[in-house]
Design brief:
The complex is a heterodimer of chains A (354) and B (229). Helices cover 37% and strands 28% of the residues of chain A. With 354 residues, chain A is of the alpha/beta class. In chain A, the strands form 3 sheets. In chain A, strands 6-7-8-3-9-10 form a 6-stranded mixed β-sheet, sandwiched between helices. Chain B has 10 helices and no strands. Chain B has helices at residues 2-6, 11-48, 58-73, 76-82, 84-91, 97-121, 125-133, 138-168, 180-189, 194-222. By secondary structure, chain B is mainly α. Classes of the chains: A alpha/beta (354), B mainly alpha (229). The interface between A and B is medium-sized, with 30 and 24 residues.
Chain lengths: 354, 229
């Protein structure tokens, strides 16, 4: 089936201006986004993700390459036909971009007014949308009277007003607190399921990708460096960029008191990081270790999480063995489908004090 | 009336004062209205015709900016006499209240245009981007996004413009425009009637105060950004 969005070798260069050199925001990027999926794009700030999402509705015109949405080559359209196609692509923003002079109702009505619908048609469309996003009681309020989460709900209702096939989310939850973020992401997933709309999410937060995306592209320095299912990216990251983006959510970062106790000298128990992926996260690895090797592992730190149906996580353990015995333990663990990384040894003196 | 008599002001002077007040109101209102009629679109064009903007037309932007600056840097009294031929062409005469409205309007247009331009430039570019993403045409963006969002600033600016026009109107006595300023100069100053001068100043203060209060109130009403819950 023809994908909903197809980027074909798309590049975006900004020419040099006074005081700043030429910038390549995106180079030769090709990407297919399937119908009905929630596709994530993650990267550090300045990686080019903001440019990428603006290329999909041609808010930014590519320097080269083609942007095809639902079989239509946007780069070949004149302005008036492009405007018609844009009504098929809703967009929500980090700072909501609501009109402060319009009520909630009138903000949602705006895209319909622009499309030339009558007042009656507008009312019949806006009311159910406000119910969908849970703001039926706020129709006459102004944006200044709403919380951040409510503003983004208005933004979502507005983006859906023209019944688009695609919804672009530009850092849509980055200005919201974690709880509100979760409720907005839940709403997006509901919409995706109910309306079958294709959603593209741009974010710098892995948490967001984890919560709602099916597939994710990791972007760095204007290039897609990794593209796979979310499960795959979380459990088997292929690049350094991905690993560092994952560090926050996957427990790769050791708590600092523990990190301070690590030493490269082999005069204490060995510290190992075990990385579990997929179904193995539930296997009783530590129990087996004690049963088969008689090694009592103490757990120093751990984080286990799940994406959709797959679990993943890390466990940092200390085992009071060294030399050949340690090598045997590592071999055993690796045979259990656990990725093992040796972090060093627990410093003896501090251990005695603790 | 009795109070005026008590102050030693004759009914004749009183009649002059009423007439002058009406002339000032007439000139200010008409010049303000015409100034807005031309100044608003000019301001919108100034704000949207620059490089990379909605209605990009750099040549127009440069020339309009130049003309606006030239008009604004000409002292009003000089503008009044400098454009007398134009005034005669438009108003059919170069003296009287109707004639005075021409230079007042010419002075008001660039003033209002700059105020509108500034207010529109202050509108968050994110809103323009959102409207573009909805498939809005440049004219729709101006009508439905830029002007409504800039309204609080525009109203505050128009208030400022009208207050300035009241001040400018004091100078059109030079072309027989009448009005409060003219009364103050001819009677209060040239005929040594300080009580007339005091009255003129008093009426002007009341007028400016009224315009400012009304303008502030309207600006608050159109500003939905910071509402008390």
């Amino acid at each position: 089936m023809e994908p909903m969005i197809r980027l074909e070798a798309v590049s975006k260069h900004y020419p040099a201006r006074k005081g700043s050199a030429a910038v390549t925001a995106l180079s030769e990027t090709s990407l297919n986004i399937d119908r009905g999926e929630i596709f994530g794009v993650i990267g550090r700030s300045g990686a080019g993700k903001s440019t990428l999402i603006r290329l999909i509705n041609l808010l930014e015109r590519p320097s080269s390459g083609r942007v095809v949405v639902d079989g239509i080559d946007l780069t070949a359209l004149d302005n008036s036909r492009l405007r018609a196609v844009r009504r098929q692509i809703g967009m929500i923003f980090q700072h909501f971009n609501l009109l402060s002079s319009r009520t909630v109702f009138d903000n949602v009505a705006l895209p319909l007014e622009l499309a030339g619908l009558s007042g009656k048609e507008i009312r019949s469309k806006v009311t159910p949308l406000l119910e969908l996003v849970g703001l039926a009681d706020k129709t006459g309020r102004y944006p200044a009277e709403l919380s951040g989460g409510q503003k983004q709900r208005v933004g979502i209702a507005r983006a859906l007003a023209t019944e688009p096939k695609v919804l672009l989310c530009d850092e849509a939850t980055s200005a919201l607190d974690p709880e509100t973020t979760r409720s907005i992401l839940g709403l997006l997933r509901d919409i995706n399921e109910k309306l079958g709309i294709t959603i593209v999410v741009i974010t710098h937060e892995m948490q967001v990708i984890k919560e709602i995306c099916d597939r994710v592209a990791v972007i760095d320095a204007g290039k897609v460096v990794e593209l796979a299912s979310v499960e795959q990216v979380f459990t088997r990251p292929q690049t350094e960029v991905t690993r560092s983006l994952l560090a926050v959510v996957s427990g790769d970062e050791l708590p600092s008191p523990l990190a301070a106790r690590l030493s490269p000298k082999a005069d204490g128990p060995a510290v190992l990081r075990l990385r579990f992926t997929g179904e193995d996260a539930e296997a009783p690895v530590i129990a087996r270790l004690s049963r088969h090797h008689g090694v009592e592992a103490s757990i120093l730190y751990g984080q286990v999480d799940s994406i959709r149906n797959a679990s993943f996580g890390t466990l940092v353990i200390a085992v009071p063995v060294s030399g050949e015995a340690l090598a045997a333990v590592i071999r055993f663990l690796e045979n259990q489908n656990v990725v093992v990384e040796s972090l060093g040894y627990l410093a003896a003196d501090i251990r005695a004090a603790g | 009336m009795s109070l005026l008599n008590h102050l030693g002001i004759s009914p004749q002077i009183y009649a002059l004062l009423v007439e002058a007040t009406l002339q000032t109101l007439h000139m200010t209102a008409v010049a303000g209205l015409l100034g807005t009629l031309f100044g608003l679109p000019l301001g919108v064009l100034l704000a949207t015709s620059g490089r990379g903007e909605l209605l990009q037309c750099v040549t127009f932007n440069r020339i309009a900016g130049l003309v606006v600056n030239a008009t604004r840097s000409t002292p009003f009294i000089i503008l009044v006499v400098a454009i007398i031929p134009f005034t005669r062409l438009v108003a059919g005469t170069s003296i009287g209240t109707a004639a005075a409205i021409v230079p007042l309007t010419i002075a008001a247009i660039p003033f209002i245009a700059r105020i509108v331009e500034t207010s529109i430039r202050e509108v968050d570019q994110g809103l323009v981007e959102a409207a573009k993403a909805m498939g809005a045409t440049p004219l729709q963006i101006i009508r439905k996004v830029l002007i409504p969002e800039a309204m609080p600033g525009i109203v505050a600016g128009l208030t400022l413009a009208i207050v300035s026009l009241i001040g400018y109107s004091a100078m059109v006595g030079a072309v027989g425009g009448g009005g409060l300023g003219d009364l103050g100069i001819r009677y209060g100053y040239q005929r040594f009637m300080p009580e007339v001068m005091a009255l003129v100043v008093l009426v002007l203060i009341v007028l400016v105060q009224a315009v400012q209060t009304a303008g502030d109130r309207l600006a608050r009403r159109v500003n939905k950004r910071l509402r008390d819950a």
